[in-house]
Amino acid sequence: MVDVMLNYDEGLNPYYGLIDLALKYELVSKVSNRIQLKDGTKVYEKQIYKNPEKYFCEDFMQELDRVAQKEFTYGTSDSSHDTGGVEEEKSE
Description:
With 92 residues, the protein is an alpha+beta fold. The chain has helices spanning 18-24, 45-50, 52-55, 58-72, and strands at residues 6-7, 11-12, 29-31, 34-36, 42-43.
């Protein structure tokens, strides 16, 4: 199930849910009922979603993109199990 924020005047909020992802990967922290940013600023989550351009800057979005790839990519590319695209033959 996916949570979305739908505003009937503006449509879907493209930033909704990113704070939860940032909290999960410790890009921000939760202090009481506020979100503490890396610079120490504490704001309500509602404020962040009202003014996303201020809080979702380019650097923060790149960090979120990196953790989103971890979160939503199927499988892993563990190099210890990488065979270079060649199937291993099993001897019996």
